[in-house]
Every structure is written in C-alpha cells, then in structure tokens.
Design goal:
Elements: E1 3-8, H1 13-24, E2 29-36, H2 41-51, E3 55-58, H3 61-67, E4 76-79, H4 81-88, E5 95-98, H5 106-114, E6 118-121, H6 124-141, E7 145-147, H7 150-158, E8 167-174, H8 192-195, H9 205-213, H10 215-228, E9 235-239, E10 245-251, E11 256-260, H11 266-274, E12 297-298, H12 306-316, H13 319-336, H14 343-354, H15 364-383
Parallel strand pairs: 1-2, 1-5, 2-3, 3-4, 5-6, 6-7, 8-9
Antiparallel strand pairs: 8-10, 9-12, 10-11
Helix pairs in contact: 2-3, 4-5, 5-6, 6-10, 6-13, 9-13, 10-12, 12-13, 13-14, 13-15, 14-15
Length: 385
C-alpha cells in the first residue's frame, strides 16, 4: 500500500528535495496534498501538474488567483493559513511532511500530532517554539515525529544502536558557515550576498543566514533536546567544515557512533519517510577513500554566541526559545532588507531575551502569543536603532 503524504512547504529547498524522493519511489507514495505560503506559484503549479494531488493550499490570495485557472482536473484549491491545517489533518493523509520555514509551520504540526498523524519534521521552529507542548501531544496521541534536518536524522539513526540511558552526549556538527575563518572584527562589514554564500549546502535565504550566524545550531540544540529527551548540558556542537559527518553520539563506555552521507537533503528525507525501513535508491554514493580528510574544530563561542543564547533560553523556560526564534526571524528579515548590519542579528536576539521573563507554555495560543511578543519586541528595538 502506498504511503499517503501531505507536503507543506512544497516550493522551498526541503520541499523540492522531498519531491525528488517521491519521484524516485513512485510505487511507494501518493502525494495527496501540497501546500505552500504562495511566494512561488509557478513552481507550485508545476508540481501540481506533475503529481496531481487531490488538495492544494496556499496562504496568499494572490497566489491562489494565479493558480486557480490552470490547475489540473481533480485538484481542489483552498486559501489561507487554516487551509494548511486542514491539509495536515486530511483523513486520507498518513504522514505530514512539515517543511514550511519559521513559526508559520507550527499550527499544521500541532494539528497533525493532535490527530495522531505521523510527522516528518523539517520545521525545526515548531519544536523551538513549543517543544514541551508538541512532544507531550505526540506522546498522548501516539503520533510519531521523525526528523528531516540532517543533524537530527543523523542522531535518530545513531541512537538506534542502544538504550537512551547509555547515552553520554549528543554532538551536533556545524559547517561553520561562510565566516568560519573570517576575522570577527570585520563582521560589521559583511554584505548580504556574502552571508548567502554557504560553503556546503544549498538552502533558502532565511536558513542560510541562520547558518552564517550559527543561530541554526542554537535552534537545532533546542530541537534535539525535545526530540531525544536529552538535557541541553549533554548536547554539544562541533564545527565540521566538510558537512559529511552529520552528527555523533557518544556512549557512556567511550564509544562513538557517527552518521555520514553526502551533503544532500534527499538522504535524510528518504530516511524520515522510510523509517523504520531503509530503501534502496540510486542516489549518489559517498566514497570514503575519496574524502581525504575530515576536520573537526571547537566552536568559537565569542565569534558565534548564538548557541549559548539558545542554551540560556532553554534554561530560562518554555517561552524563551519561542521569543528567541521570533526575534531571529525579524532580525534576519531586517538584515536581508539591508536595514541592519550582520552582528545586529544576534545582538537583537540577546537584547530581546534580556527583556523577557520566561513563562510556561501549556497551549498553542500561548506559544503563538510569545512568538508574537518576540516579534513586536524585536521590531520595536530595531525601529529605535
């Protein structure tokens, strides 16, 4: 029987890679629903014509107007944020692929887990904004969360080797981004195009900037804490410029397990969709003899303080990671628009967190409320210079 998928974020980098995996295994999948915010209607239309989903949803009304006259027969179009939620809980969907970037992806993930749907999670911000809430819902409903992020997919695989009480620590690898070896004194002169020039991964603009600041590694640390139930003090980050070792697990007997693969998202996506199986494929293979060397470096915490900010947010309480993520999204947008210098991204996050008193998050509205608060505070600070 084919696995029936809803793919949200279909036109982003993760969404496109997911479509590659679906295309590679036509006998295994039925793409029931496609969803997107709507910034690339032409690409969404091409996917709809190729895969002919029963359901299509976009948030932007203008995108819906552009799509509606050209959709294939049998595809129903719905519009608005609630339309994405409806796709996530569609009765004919077995698994949600959550690939919308940012806090916008939280509502569909919350709805899918509440309905007991399996979730292949690329939207790390969902667990950053509401980690305790979502993992609690998943435990209660029996819903399965399998991560798509390459680092978390690597940990997920390595952790299959033994019980959690034998784990000493988790180690996330970071490429270091484009500024790994750049003099910190010059960070204020970093230009937009430089920050978008990632050395090993091809990603969307927002996550590429997060990689340049290493905010992404802070978000991944928070996500790992909730995915795997390991406290933050037992999750570390090491810089690995080649991006071949995607993460490592140290066991209490001193043994290490690492997961290696080419730096292409098709591998963790197929893993998440196939779990607990492993499927044969014709994707490019990694040849260890051709690697030459693999380098590992300590994280420069002075140059890249975002990971420490993430630890502080986790320690403060539920709402603080939501505020961190919100402030980052506003600051990244401002940097991309040319309104602030590169170091101001992380500075803004720190300033917003410093003015926040953390509180428990016991429901979706509370999580979204703190997300909104963090956005307002970041915008206010940036407007005030």
């Amino acid at each position: 029987m084919k696995q029936r998928l809803a793919l949200l974020g279909a036109t982003g980098s993760i969404g496109k890679s997911c479509l590659t995996v679906v295309r590679h295994h036509p006998e295994r999948f039925e793409l029931v629903a496609l969803g997107a915010l709507g910034s690339r209607p032409e690409e969404l239309l091409a996917a709809a014509r190729e895969f002919r989903p029963r359901e299509l949803a976009v948030v932007e009304p203008a995108a819906a107007a552009a799509l509606r006259p050209h959709l294939p027969a049998g595809t129903r179009l719905s519009v608005g944020e609630e339309a994405l939620v409806e796709l996530a809980v569609h009765p004919d969907v077995d698994r949600l692929v959550a690939a919308i970037v940012g806090a916008a992806g939280l509502r569909p993930v919350h709805a899918a887990l509440s309905a007991g749907k399996a979730v292949a999670l690329a939207n790390k911000e969902s667990l950053v904004v509401a980690g305790r809430l979502l993992t609690g819902i998943a435990a209660a409903s029996g819903a399965e969360i399998v991560p798509i992020d390459s680092e978390h997919a690597a940990l997920h695989q390595a952790l299959r080797a033994g019980p959690r009480d034998e784990v000493e620590r988790l180690v996330l690898t970071a490429s270091g981004g484009p500024f790994l070896r750049r003099d910190r004194a010059t960070f204020a002169t970093i230009r937009r195009e430089e920050a978008l020039r990632h050395p090993t991964w091809s990603m969307g603009e927002k996550i590429t900037i997060d990689s340049a600041t290493l905010v992404n590694k802070g978000l991944e640390l928070i996500e790992a804490r909730w995915l795997f139930g390991v406290p933050a003090e037992r999750i570390d980050v090491v810089v690995h410029p080649q991006s071949i070792v995607h993460s490592l697990v140290e066991w209490r007997d001193g043994s290490w397990l690492a997961q290696l693969a080419p730096n292409d998202m098709i591998f963790p996506i197929q893993y998440a969709l196939a779990f607990p199986e492993r499927w044969a494929n014709r994707f490019p293979r990694l040849e260890p003899a051709e690697l030459g060397r693999l380098d590992f470096l300590p994280l420069d915490r002075a140059a890249f303080p975002a990971v420490d900010l993430a630890r502080q947010a986790l320690a403060a309480g539920d709402s603080a990671p939501a505020v961190l993520n919100a402030a980052n999204e506003i600051a990244v947008h401002a940097f991309l628009a040319g309104e602030i210098p590169f170091p101001a991204i992380v500075d803004t996050i720190g300033d917003v967190l410093a003015g926040h008193r953390a509180a428990p998050v016991d429901g979706l509205d509370e999580a979204l409320g703190w997300d909104a608060w963090g956005r307002r505070e970041a915008a206010r600070m940036l407007a005030g210079g």
